[in-house]
Design brief:
Elements (H helix, E strand, L loop, with lengths): L1 H5 L70 E5 L2 H4 L12 H6 L17 H15 L3 E5 L2 H4 L9 H16 L3 E7 L5 H4 L8 H17 L5 E6 L1 H11 L9 H24 L5 E7 L3 E3 L4 H24 L4 H7 L4 H5 L4 H5 L6 E4 L4 E3 L5 E2 L15 H14 L4 E5 L17 H19 L4 E7 L18 E4 L4 E4 L1 H12 L3
Parallel strand pairs: 1-2, 1-11, 2-3, 3-4, 4-5, 5-7, 6-8, 7-10, 10-11
Antiparallel strand pairs: 8-9, 12-13
The chain binds beta-D-fucopyranose (FCB).
Keywords: Carbohydrate metabolism, Cellulose degradation, Glycosidase, Hydrolase, Polysaccharide degradation
Family: Belongs to the glycosyl hydrolase 1 family.
GO molecular function: beta-glucosidase activity
């Protein structure tokens, strides 16, 4: 597996809603400037958490939005995303079990400052406030994840009703506010008990996941119109099993690609479970995709970029959409790889069962040199692995539609961390986030005009949160979280996004 050991692995591999948008008439008519903010007062005097919200007057924010006059299709799903371990906290509440991220973050030296998700943004307790903020911003869609260890504390057996009840309350609260729930079944918080029996290296974990998915579908299925199976299998593979700076902290490439197969199998088995319930809800994978460009025109760079694309993109797209692994990646890994030996008869049929949509998560491009290394071309964000290149959004969206057919697409993550600070006047000015979101949405708009059936877009993230090994050091939210008090403050990007949603245009 030459390239695996030679190439400098990316810290974070990059990624990618209803099909009615293709060919939509996206007129670039000027958009009337939004009037002064009309947000309702969110404070509920009976709710102490709500009283901590600071929804400052939007007019006090600098107007950095430079309207582009680009209208989105009617009913476009404007959204934002979070994941359970990153926002919920309440690590021991209501019978929640331990996950691999509890173990990993509590291990000295693993996260920035020893940060853990024990409290995070305390969303488990403050979700009513957070729901009100979503409504005030005008979100139409909210993507969150369900914590497997809340539903099955030890990873198997009878579901924990108190854990399921939290998600029932959350989903009901979304519907009450006219926001469509989009739930991810697995955003990396594997029950520790399953890690103890081999985790994703153990094929049985995929079957445990199918049982867990069934329990969730039985409890919530009718209320959740869109399900996502596994969030970014590539990040588990690369960061969890090759680089080792995510849970479970392994550095074993041969195990890593077997893990990829079992994550794919888990996806396919969950799809089958949903179909078996007779549900009409839709389901698909959530993949972080990175456009891989040759660093120069040399045939060697072109070939290296092609193989790099195999490891970054096709290894995750092909099994689901074509029922096969990319031949170049399999050849590079060799015939005796644990991946090659781990594929059982029928697995690829399970994995490639038709899905209803593809969730794409886009953060950064990759430039590949003739020797299989990478180069930086564009300025990075505070996250040094992230080069800011909005054009990559257009390239990856049009590429998946071209290569994998007109499956409906939702962008379930896109965003950046910025050095946000609470100013003396109580505002948070994140002009860099406004510019980033506007430019990436412009690229998404062009992709729609080019025929990509993009139905929705979710900013990562709704709230500042626990950014894995970076702990609370990186702020990715539209909403600032003052961790010592858990006070929420809408950043200028949230005010900007509210106007975008109200106008259905950037
Ligand atoms: C993605 C993850 C998400 C968050 C963003 C910044 O890879 O899915 O949880 O960490 O990156």
């Amino acid at each position: 597996m030459s390239i695996v050991t030679r190439r400098r692995l990316h810290h974070r591999a990059a990624s990618a809603g209803a099909a009615t948008t293709a060919g939509a008439d996206l007129t670039a008519t000027p958009v009337a400037p939004a009037g002064p903010g009309t947000a309702p007062d969110t404070a509920d005097p009976a709710d102490p958490a709500s009283a901590t919200v600071d929804d400052a007057d939007p007019d006090r924010h600098s107007d950095t939005d430079g309207r582009l006059g680009l209208r989105f299709p009617p009913d476009f799903g404007w959204g934002a995303a979070t994941s359970a371990y990153q926002v919920e906290g309440a690590a021991k509440d209501d019978g929640r079990g331990e996950s691999v991220w509890d173990t990993f973050s509590r291990t000295p030296g693993r996260t920035h400052g020893g940060d853990t998700g024990d409290v995070a943004a305390d969303h488990y307790h403050r979700y009513p406030t957070d729901l009100d903020l979503m409504r005030d911003i005008g979100l139409r869609s909210y993507r969150f994840s369900i914590a497997w260890p809340r539903v099955q504390p030890d990873g198997s057996g009878a579901p924990n009703q108190r854990g399921l009840d939290f998600y029932r309350r959350l989903v009901d609260g979304l519907h009450d506010r006219g926001i469509t729930p989009m739930a991810t079944l697995f955003h990396w918080d594997l029950p520790q008990a399953l890690q103890d029996t081999g985790g994703w290296e153990n094929r049985d974990t995929a079957y445990r996941f199918a049982d867990y998915a069934r329990a969730v579908f039985d409890a919530l299925g009718a209320q959740v119109p869109v399900w996502l199976t596994v969030n970014e299998p590539k990040t588990v593979v690369q960061n969890g099993y090759i680089i080792g700076h995510h849970a479970p902290g392994r550095q074993d490439p041969d195990a890593a690609y077997l893990v990829a197969h079992h994550l794919h199998l888990a996806h396919g088995l969950a799809v089958a479970q949903l179909r078996d319930t007779g549900s009409t809800s839709r389901i698909g994978p959530a993949l972080n995709l990175h456009p891989c460009y040759p660093a120069d025109d040399s045939p060697a760079s072109v070939a290296a970029a092609r193989l790099y694309d195999g490891y970054e993109n096709r290894l995750y797209l092909d099994p689901v959409f074509t029922g096969s692994y990319p031949a170049d990646v399999l050849a590079d890994l060799g015939p005796d790889s644990r991946l090659a030996r781990g594929i059982h008869d029928g697995d690829l049929e399970t994995i490639s069962a038709p899905v209803d949509l593809l969730a794409v998560q886009y953060y950064t491009p990759i430039y590949v040199t003739a020797t299989g290394g990478t180069e930086r071309r564009w300025p990075t964000s505070v996250a040094t692995w992230q080069q800011i290149f909005p054009e990559g959004m257009y390239d990856i969206l049009t590429r998946v539609t071209r290569d994998y057919g007109p499956v409906p697409i939702t962008v379930t993550e896109n965003g950046l961390p910025t050095p946000d600070a609470l100013a003396a006047d109580g505002t948070v000015d994140d002009a860099g986030r406004v510019a980033f979101l506007r430019d990436h949405l412009a690229a998404a708009h062009r992709a729609i005009a080019a025929g990509v059936p993009l139905e929705s877009y979710h900013v990562w993230s709704l709230l500042d949160n626990f950014e894995w090994e970076q702990g609370y050091d990186q702020r990715w939210g539209l909403i600032y979280v003052d961790y010592p008090t858990q006070r929420r403050v809408l950043k200028s990007s949230a005010h900007w996004y509210r106007r975008v949603i109200a106008d259905n245009a950037i």
